[in-house]
């Protein structure tokens, strides 16, 4: 083979390798672009919930997480261009879950209190609530004063405990039993292991509609309160983005529509 022919073949081989390298580079570039687009499209906000807190957030007959707060959170995430991912947590450790970064938001009937304001950032209040007393239908308890000498159930580390402790009647209550969630508390109420349960009004009203022949709701309430959404301190950017989404949902009627679906009326604070 002549030197000229060898030189020609070397030039052709170099050209082929160069084209192959360009193709690989383009493919990597396209893959990177695709991956970046995918990440942008699936950016998630992880929301810590109590999945036994009907009608705010709970599991339906198909074991799917549903509720007023669930629908509201999904709509807010959509307004933010994000995807809501719900993470059931032990409600007693909600602030710890937030501080650790395992969740981005506490959002499930989360009452705004002065003590909690020292730990987390809050959105503006979005729903009014109060702590009330739920008893069995045939109970002789008819007023707060009748709780004297009785055994009362509450959800551990919930605002129900604060409401009861701030009322003088707590000194006369025979025993206070803490439960991991409201479902367990109401189960013990039905079986007679406790005489009454201090519980959120929105939750009590839901169970009254579900089991009208089982429960009775006292007219007197313990304490008015408001729900807000908790954000980790230092994450003001997320708080601002979320609040803007909530404000927009109030303006465009989304929040009112969700409230009417779950409560039969617009209860959302403007």
TrEMBL record:
<protein>
    <submittedName>
        <fullName>Polar amino acid transport system substrate-binding protein</fullName>
    </submittedName>
</protein>
<dbReference type="InterPro" id="IPR001320">
    <property type="entry name" value="Iontro_rcpt_C"/>
</dbReference>
<feature type="signal peptide">
    <location>
        <begin position="1"/>
        <end position="20"/>
    </location>
</feature>
<dbReference type="Pfam" id="PF00497">
    <property type="entry name" value="SBP_bac_3"/>
</dbReference>
<feature type="domain" description="Ionotropic glutamate receptor C-terminal">
    <location>
        <begin position="44"/>
        <end position="265"/>
    </location>
</feature>
<keyword id="KW-0449">Lipoprotein</keyword>
<keyword id="KW-0732">Signal</keyword>
<keyword id="KW-0564">Palmitate</keyword>
<dbReference type="InterPro" id="IPR018313">
    <property type="entry name" value="SBP_3_CS"/>
</dbReference>
<dbReference type="InterPro" id="IPR001638">
    <property type="entry name" value="Solute-binding_3/MltF_N"/>
</dbReference>
<comment type="similarity">
    <text>Belongs to the bacterial solute-binding protein 3 family.</text>
</comment>
<feature type="domain" description="Solute-binding protein family 3/N-terminal">
    <location>
        <begin position="44"/>
        <end position="266"/>
    </location>
</feature>
